[in-house]
Specification:
It comes from Rhodotorula paludigena. It is a multi-pass membrane protein. The protein is mainly alpha-helical. The chain has one domain: Hydantoin permease, CATH 1.10.4160. The protein has 15 helices and no strands. Helix 6 packs antiparallel against helix 12. It starts with 14 loop residues before the first helix and ends with a helix. The N terminus is likely disordered.
């Protein structure tokens, strides 16, 4: 990208050559700065020749990226997934899980293609601007922030309830919420995704242990442990033919929420060594999700039947529930950090996209990052503690944003990638050039329609 310096001994014979030589020996830092001011043709996280005291953000391999994004995926969604099986039935729950696995993987594949074509895109808001101009940027930006803050508040609330289980609500719950917020903010000090690797591994290990303890406890406790006085014995069904429309919609919404990490895909790609490899990261995540959601959801539903609670960690005796929550607390904190980082990176990249501060190793850059993180968790704490209808609000925000990021957003990206009316797509054949594209066109329209119907 940078022009090389001319040899000092080169003869300069005329004014034109002199001008060219002067241009060729411009300060490389200045050229790097000019390049940063052209985001439509530059990767903002790429280190420029001549940059000093900079952090290399592009350190993610596909295994690291897969484990980190899986940390967000296999978290709170795992604890509520058994209730999806209760509403739909065992077989229907497995089918629904597999269907959303396919949709989420297809959507991530499309996002990778979009990033490869538009390397300046750093997040979903950038993609929205590419498709719909400033209006698309604003709408997608608001969605990113709303979901990140909502998830932060949700994890603060979940952490508070987990700790309250330990002391049986003997101490101030607001204090526990403040503690969770503070610990989460401190652990979010690293600006790079790769810096969250070991926290993510710990999170995944803990949630798996928590699920194993809960399944073992549910399988060994008396069969009538969850049965209320005078209630029917525990039973499970393959397909729940008596499910109400509201319960069916709730179960599907729960699945959408469980795969809502699709919002993070475009935020991960700028830090990948090879963005194309992120498809393998998503495959790793989807395999782990399929196994954990299916096994945990299916096993706990067969033990709890129509009495399966949400979160499922509460379906065992108190001692085992405390042990499960002790492990799950690690996941509640760390998976919340990953979710919040998506929103924090949106603010951070927008503030410093055209500045060396973006990849600077200075205390100012780190301080700005911590200030953003602290602000998000402060707002999340206030929302979780002061809004009495927070759970209902979170359900609305999460279902709206997740349904679009998991389904409709990917459909719109594909339609944009092959829109024959766009100058950059001239010669690519358009939407209907091959049978495969015709199928993808129909799928994309269906995904957009699915999200639009959920919004209405």
């Amino acid at each position: 990208m940078f022009r090389s310096r001319e040899p000092k001994g080169q003869e300069i014979n005329d004014e034109k050559t002199v001008s060219q030589a002067v241009a060729s020996v411009q300060d490389e830092e200045t050229i790097g700065q000019q390049d940063r001011l052209q985001p439509a043709v530059a990767d903002a996280f790429a280190l420029r020749e001549g940059d000093e005291n900079q952090v290399d953000f592009k350190t993610l391999g596909w295994i690291k990226a897969g484990l980190i994004i899986t940390c967000e995926a296999i978290a709170l969604g795992t604890l509520s997934f058994p209730s999806t099986f209760k509403r739909l039935g065992l077989a229907a729950g497995l089918i629904t899980n597999c269907a959303f696995i396919a949709i989420a993987y297809l959507g991530a594949w499309i996002m990778v293609d979009f990033k490869l074509k538009y390397p300046h895109v750093l997040n979903a808001a950038d993609a929205g601007r590419e498709m719909f101009g400033r209006a698309g940027y604003i709408i997608c930006g608001i969605a990113i922030v709303a979901k990140s803050v909502g998830l932060a508040a949700s994890h603060v609330l979940a952490g508070k309830l987990a700790i309250a289980t330990f002391d049986d609500n003997a101490n101030c719950a607001v204090g526990w919420a403040a503690l969770i917020s503070g610990v989460s903010a401190i652990l979010s000090y690293n600006r790079k995704w790769s810096g969250l690797l070991w926290l993510s591994v710990a999170s995944l290990t803990c949630i798996i242990i928590a699920c194993i303890v809960t399944m073992a406890g549910a399988g060994t406790q008396p069969a009538d442990f969850l049965v209320p006085p005078g209630g029917e014995p525990v039973h499970w069904v393959a397909f729940n033919t008596s499910v109400s429309l509201a319960d069916c919609i709730g179960a599907i919404t729960n699945c959408v929420f469980a795969y809502g990490q699709a919002m993070a895909v475009l935020t991960f790609l700028p830090e990948m060594k090879k963005p194309k490899d992120f498809r393998k990261s998503i495959a790793l995540m989807q395999v782990l999700q399929l196994i954990v959601y299916s096994v945990v959801g299916g096993v706990l539903y067969t033990y709890g039947g129509q009495y399966t609670p949400s979160p499922a960690l509460t379906m065992t005796k108190r001692t085992l529930a405390i042990i499960s929550y002790a492990f799950a607390l690690v996941t509640i904190i760390v998976s919340g950090i990953v979710a919040v980082n998506v929103g924090a990176k949106f603010f951070y990249t927008e503030l410093f996209r055209n500045s060396p501060m973006l990849t600077s190793n200075s205390w100012k850059a780190q301080g700005a990052w911590l200030a953003i993180i602290g602000t998000i968790y402060t707002v999340a704490f206030i929302i979780a503690e002061l809004i009495p209808f927070f759970n209902q609000l979170l359900t609305i925000v999460s279902s709206w944003t997740s349904s679009w990021f998991v389904c409709g957003f990917a459909g719109m990206l594909w339609l944009h990638l092959y829109n024959p009316r766009l100058p950059e797509n001239a010669g690519n054949g358009g939407w209907f050039s091959t049978p495969g594209r015709i199928v993808m066109f129909c799928i994309s329209i269906g995904l957009v329609a699915m999200s639009a119907s959920s919004t209405v």
